[in-house]
Queue: 2 jobs
Job 1
Amino acid sequence: MYTDTLTVNCMEYSSRAIQDPPQPVSRLLYEQVADRLTSIIDAGTLRPGDRVPSLRRTSTAQGVSLSTSLQAYVLLESRGLIEARPQSGFYVRPSLSARLAEPPVRTCPPGPTSIDVGALARQVFQAATDPAIVPLGAACPSPDVLPTKKLGRLVTAITRSAGSEINTYVFPPGRVELRRELARRTVDWRYPLPATGVAVTCGATEALLLTLSTVAARGDMVAVESPAYFGMLLLLEHLGLRAIEIPADPASGLRLDALASALRRHRISACIASPTCQNPLGATMPDDAKRELLALLSRHDTPLIEDDVYGDAFHGGERPLPVKAWDRKGVVVLCSSFSKLAAPGYRVGWVAGGRYHEALMQRQLTTTLALPALPQLAMAAFLRSGAYDSHTRHTRALYARQVALAREAIARHFPPGTRATRPTGGLVLWVELPPSVDALRLGDEALRAQVSIAPGPLFSPRREYRHCIRLNCGYPWTPVIDGAYRTLGRLASEQAASKRR
């Protein structure tokens, strides 16, 4: 068995090696200067219309050469943050993104539908593996923002301490060390989770798959948000389930009136939703609406499959509670992972199955059988040390800034009539283009220009949203990323102009 000695060693190593807050990714000197000035602008110290310190003053203050200061200012110009005025200097540029309207709420057909998005999804995932393509399609964080080295040092320490213990089967529900840490993070909930109510999975995808296959059978109807995360639609397609689309508001998430109407009309086996930082809209439901959602589904005895993958990536201050926090009867199955903030390659997810927990574990035993020990032990130590929370604070601020830069680039380069969401969290942005722009055609043209996007039809069982796209903001803003937005804007503008002729 895993020894107490190893636990002590990991705790000592954690406090020694990874207690410090995460450091920014190594950047060129002019990028560091640009980042410092960006922070001043973001904080509101310098506002639109204010004059930026002169090149010479910045050079002296930052201890860099005039040429380095000039490179930093050129980068800030490319980001759309400052502008040069002849004979006057540099000024903070007025924000164009403030004028970007949000997409409207769509109405959805009332009946169920089968799903066929597999071919489109494979194209997006394939593009994400090509290093020559700018990755704005799949919602993947940049490797440069992940705590890979810190986790690697933990893995090394655990390997030395555990020996053969890490090379054994770990049967469901997974390592107790990790499950205790996950349960500890729920102590402020109305109904905290016990370690026995949490199980480790191979990412959130396995958690969702296990839950869907447990609560629904082939041909059943499942209520889904619209637009919906296309990975979840892939699971429904694989299991032969039919979708009932429920419109989601870009600001407040799932429309409860539409869900209530669907529950009255149809026999729905489950509802899948992301009440916190929904993918692809980035919307977060208010707490009152979350409690109302729980009450509504409880009255119909319909389980809620809560996809909380982006919950820790909330851009604001205090992390919103999931619906599961108020679940007394076990009607909510909470699914999450560490893939969007810390360790996508470790494939460590988890599920809190409520009344379905034992059935989920039995199904996992017959499908996956066992999970690797080493990633679980590493994530347990990472959580226990406090390094995960420190890293998360840094990363969600980075995501918020990258989303803001993306909205500014869209406002600057995309055709008139373009709309974009204002995400409350996460690393994706939903963009509605003018009706004359076809998202599938735009996706093909962008790929030929070495840029990947996720076309809107991927996010609907009926392949709606034909002039919408989702963009990944998980990579630090660079001239390459900025150039990709310019390219997308040019291609979309050319489409829009050709339709007008």
Job 2
Amino acid sequence: MSVSNDRLVRNAWWNGLVVPAFNIPYLPMMRPVIQAVVDQDAFALIATARIEWLRFEARGLAEVKAEFERWAQTDHVRLHVDHIPVIDEQDSWVEYLAIIQGALEMGYPSVMVDGSRLGLEENIAATREVVDLAHAAGAAVEAELGAVLGHSAGPLPPYEELYESGMGFTAVEECARFVQESGCDWLSVAIGNIHGAISDVLKDEQKVEARLNIERLEKLNQAAGVPLVLHGGSGVRQEYLRQAVKHGIAKVNIGAEIRQGYERGLRETGQVARAQEAVYDRTVWLLRDYLQISGLRGKIVQAETTDELR
């Protein structure tokens, strides 16, 4: 693997582009997502999160990696470990270091530790531990400051209430310190984006059309000095996403948009192949029409970039 995940995301950041990270909660989604990325001559990360092993059918790190390796074309796609929480959605402590160490031993080239349910000092300390482990293995680390809501078991307050209150938003005054002291490579921020619901009651509901606080994002981008990440990309209004990419968002996570297509196709037809077709079609739409990155793979994978291009 000649170019690291960190350099690929930084190439996007330096050149005003974005790398989508597609979550795979069901293993049969892997093939159509990768095929769509290849057919659109785009670049993407394939992401797997702990919650998808517990509440869906991704099974685990080893199973996701094995399925990825069946179809992967590494000029187009790379693996990434998404949310490994320090404290999970049920407010339980997680053996996050052991999970991340296992991922690194398997060769995952980038990982995310989510200490967003901790206080600032504890989040910095937990992230620093992971950074030391991952950098020793040549892997990049994503962290989260603030709290991207939506993965809790119960319903959230109305979206407009959340947005207007700034609940969970990343604090600009904490950003520079967090990046400097934790050593993280990429930073997930909360600026109005929310995760798709994953509880049995809510997981089929259409996501709210989120908007983003671009003014706050501009300040976070200036303070952080590293690529920023937008979780909960499904449902964000396109005009907000375009502005976000101009102001530091270099990676956007997309889960519900393709997961719900797979689940709906399987429910309506009972055929995995038809569900996979739905995933392929939706991924093509996301790459070509929503993100508008079809044909731009070379600018990320082969870009000759330096800090001066920022």
